[in-house]
Amino acid sequence: MVDVLLPGITATRVATPRLTQSVLHPDGIDPAGPGEAVLFVHGNVSSALFWQQSLLALAGTGRHRVLAVDLRSYGDTDPLPLDATRGARDWSDDLAALIETLGLSRVHLVGWSMGAGVVLQYLLDAPERVSSVALVAPISPYGFGGTVGADGVLVHPDGTGSGGGGANPDFVAALAAGDTGVDNPTGPRAVLRSFYVAPGSLPLDPRLEDVFVASMISTRTGAGHYPGDAVTVDAWPGLAPGTRGVLNTMAPTFFDVSGIVDLTDKPPVLWIRGDADQIVSDTSVFDLAFLGSVGAVPGWPGAGDFAPQPMVTQTRSVLDRYAATGGAYREVVLPDVGHSPHVERPHEFAVALLEHLDVPAEAPANLR
Fold first, then answer.
1. Cis ω on the peptide bond leading into residue 227 (within 30° of 0)?
2. Is residue 99 one of the residues assigned to a domain?
């Protein structure tokens, strides 16, 4: 059994009116109490364990109270199912309940990948409680799959090409089996090494890798969890989103946080990503349309009918409009980094985040 908590990190279970959530924090830090906190929200097939290096780095400065939460369906938070028809709102409502229960007046939110979508949903719902936002390799504001163009236009009204049917069944089976081995090419460890970090980058510390794999297999599987259910359709690639589970929360029929551009009060945004990200990209190898374009999914109808989703372009388009309407954002691109800047370059990530937290952008312009 892997000791998943790094020295200096404590896990506390917090009972809220919605569910009991697991919160990681540095030793000696009370997660409850008035004032501000920095709240880290993990991505898909992971948990708060991926944030431990960041928690320790920021705690070492003594300037911020830092917390990381396990979302429902992950880690040690209660395994309640997900109503995907609410988009990310099951999770954002859970965050709201946690913030209220802890007595926090305001939060700096840090969201990774899917967690960035949860953070932006919370920003839409409670902008008065948000001091700043950091988006780490974020999913598009228009969700994952099924849209084209910078403005996230649906290819099909039912979201065909997105949702629970897009997961690799062998990977799902490996998660369900708790596979921690090194030989399965579709197992969690292989996916971590091949896609969570940039291929060819320095290998992870073996102990940290074991912690991250343990985090990945904490993902609950099934129709109400990961990946969710799916609907068979006639149009390519033959599947549309269901109504339950993780991947359907990110279907563009249910998820759209581009409305942040219309907020009256716009907190500063840090967008940090790697230039070798294969998961969130304009050429994502997890986007069925891109896979079709390279022949990996047969029958692709062509770019005129179903172009790959330009995920990074969509994020930039929304953030540019956010800046043009009174907000501000800064883009930090780390070279030779994949989908996990906080894991691959923990020092550079911490420096960029601290600069954002301590001297947030104020000018209403794109500061990248």
1. yes
2. yes
CATH code assigned at 77: 3.40.50.1820
Is there a contact between 145 and 288 (Cβ–Cβ < 8 Å)? Answer: yes
Which contiguous run of DSSP H or E holds residue 39? strand 36-41
Asked if residues 328 and 269 have their Cβ atoms less than 8 Å apart, the reply is yes
Q: What is the pLDDT of residue 53?
A: 97
Rg (CA), the chain: 19
User: What whole-number distance in Å separates Cα of residue 163 and Cα of residue 144?
Assistant: 8
* Amino acid making up residue 192: L
Q: What is the pLDDT of residues 324-341, one digit of tens each?
A: 999 999 999 999 999 999
How many residues in total does the chain contain?
A: 368
Q: Give the number of other CB atoms < 10 A from CB of residue 172.
A: 18
Q: Which helix (H) or strand (E) holds 30?
A: none
Span 108-153, pLDDT tens digits: 999 999 999 999 999 999 999 999 999 999 999 999 999 999 999 9
Residues of the chain with pLDDT under 50: 1, 361-368
* Sign of the torsion angle spanned by Cα atoms 259, 262, 264, 266: positive
**What confidence score (pLDDT) does residue 15 get?**
98
Within-domain flag for 141: yes
Residue 75 counted as domain residue:
yes
CA distance 330 to 314: 16
Degrees to nearest 5, angle at CA 136 with 38 and 64: 20
pTM: 0.96
Cα–chain-centroid distance for residue 301?
30
Domain that holds residue 289: 9-147+255-358
Asked if 23 contacts 11 with a C-beta cutoff of 8 angstroms, the reply is yes
| Both tokens assigned to 119 | 């953070």
Give a yes or no: residue 363 inside a domain. Answer: no
pLDDT of residue 200: 74
Q: H-helix or E-strand containing 159? A: none
Q: Smallest Cα–Cα separation from 354: which of 180, 191, 134, 83?
A: 134
Q: 213: which 2 tokens?
A: 């794999």
Report the first-to-last Cα separation within the chain, whole angstroms.
43
> SS3 for 90?
helix
